[in-house]
Amino acid sequence: MQSNWSFPVGLDVHWQSPQSVAFSDPYLKNWLLDTGSLTERVQSLCRQFELVVLGQGQQQMHRAEQDWLGSDQGSVDVREVLLCADGVPWVFARSVIPHALIYGELADLGSEPLGKRLFNDARFTRSAFELCTLPSTAFSDNLVRKALWGRRSRFARDGYRMIVAEVFLPPAPAYEKG
């Protein structure tokens, strides 16, 4: 597994609606717009799943995160993790979480996937996705493909909103032809 990740990695990119993206690959589109738990999908495709916490703590939000989350959420923590399948990072995830949720419903996450709590609590509702592309060099020195794809959505509960953003890394099956 890659060991040169340093918290915070960040994800300061331009986000766009899925309607503004022309998809040439329906398999990739399926991965990007799947509303189920990404963690569960990755787990179903490997023998050994591991969530690696790169870091969590109070951090500055990127401008696009501030604009999408709103300034009324108070202090936030940023949590960055890797979803690994059989020892290989498939997904980089960055979550921006209000302290009210970190010290409440989402306390003591540790190496537990955030999605496990979000998808097992019907009080959390999810927004539509926004998508981004990044150069492959954003997360790797290996020029495997021209662009990496990411997605983000907001989860809301009791007036608090959080952002969960995920980038599919080069080994992810999202890039395989279906």
TrEMBL record:
Pfam families attached to this UniProt entry: Chor_lyase
Residues annotated to bind substrate: R79, L114, E166
Principal place of residence: cytoplasm
Catalytic activity annotation: chorismate = 4-hydroxybenzoate + pyruvate
Keywords associated with the record: Cytoplasm, Lyase, Pyruvate, Ubiquinone biosynthesis
UniProt GO BP: pyruvate biosynthetic process; ubiquinone biosynthetic process
The EC number(s) this enzyme carries: 4.1.3.40
One Gene Ontology MF term: chorismate lyase activity
Cellular localisation: Cytoplasm
Highest taxon of the lineage: Bacteria
GO CC annotations on file: cytosol
Pathway: Cofactor biosynthesis; ubiquinone biosynthesis
Family: Belongs to the UbiC family.
Its biological purpose: Removes the pyruvyl group from chorismate, with concomitant aromatization of the ring, to provide 4-hydroxybenzoate (4HB) for the ubiquinone pathway.
Official protein name in the record: Probable chorismate pyruvate-lyase
Organism of derivation: Alteromonas halophila
Gene transcribed to yield this protein: ubiC
